[in-house]
Amino acid sequence: MNLDKDYWENRYVEGTTGWDTGYITRPIKEYIDQLEDKSLSILTPGSGPSHEAEYIHQQGFENIHIIDMSELAMDTFKKRYPTFPESQIHVQDLFEHTGKYDIIIEQTCFCALEPHLRNQYLNHIKSMLNLNGKYVGLLFQHMELSDTDGPPFGGDLSYYLELFGNHFEIKTMEDCYNSIDPRAGNELWFSVG
Ligand SMILES: C[S@@+](CC[C@H](N)C(=O)[O-])C[C@H]1O[C@@H](n2cnc3c(N)ncnc32)[C@H](O)[C@@H]1O
Question: Structural domains in the chain?
Answer without folding.
Answer: 5-192 (3.40.50.150)
